[in-house]
Amino acid sequence: MAITAKMVKELREKTGAGMMDCKKALTETNGNMEEAIDFLRKSGAAQAAKKAGRIAAEGTTFIEINGNDAVLLEVNCETDFVTKNENFQSLVTDLAKHIVNEKPANLDEVLQQNLADSNQTVEEYINSAVATIGEKITLRRFALLSKSDNDVFGSYLHMGGRIGALVLLEGTKDEEVAKDVAMHIAAANPKYVAREDVAEDEVNREREILKEQALNEGKPEHIVEKMVEGRLGKFFEEICLLDQQFVKDSDVKVKKFVADQGATVKQFVRYEVGEGIEKKEEDFAEEVMSQMKK
Fold this sequence. Notes:
The chain has twelve helices and eight strands. The model has no long low-confidence stretch (mean pLDDT 90). Among the domains are: 5-50, Helicase, Ruva Protein, domain 3; 56-146, Elongation factor Ts, dimerisation domain (Tetrahydropterin Synthase, Chain A). 48% of the residues lie in helices and 20% in strands. The protein starts with a helix and ends with a helix. The longest helix is centred in the C-terminal third of the chain and has 19 residues, at 221-239.
């Protein structure tokens, strides 16, 4: 039976499931609407859709390294309790292994890819976990890094995965050095590797702010420019990895620490769970009661 757009739309309205899930359900059931609804319920797609509007600001970061490739990802759920769940932890590990092996270009691509040795897509696999665990779960983001044989990855997960940092060093194979840099990144939260990476517009905007501040302090205009350049140095120390004081030795900057090992920082990525997500404030006791009801 031919599956029409009208049929897909009707099934979406009845279940709230995604378009591709609805099309697959109708195809598998030869267009039978009731059987398609049952198919979606069994696969977890319908249950996942019902939870789609809920806020998933908890979760974990995770790092998987496979040879010359590595991935840092963030998987979100609704409560911190779920991060201790074995099914959730297995899901996170499976997603990381899939991504580092298949190297998808973006989230849309990875969600439509089939898991190895499975007839499920990644999206279907996540929906199945939602049905089992009972919370909204999302693969929020991921970053893939690749290295040569002479370079090294450094990885660090803080607070059980609350913060994840992954760095690529060139010119060394010392994993302890790379891990120390990853730990620094997790702690200091730099935005860029070096000053040269900061957009000119961002630097000019900061320069104007600092200039206005100096003038408002009543400083003579002929020394304002020198003051601004000095204060810009502090600005770079806050956001640029190489300009920061190394957390394990505040007497040296990261740039010197890395250079002393004969290495350079090529790139890094740092994720903190839930950053940028507006989290619903809940009373802890209510959260516990909510979990008990499930």
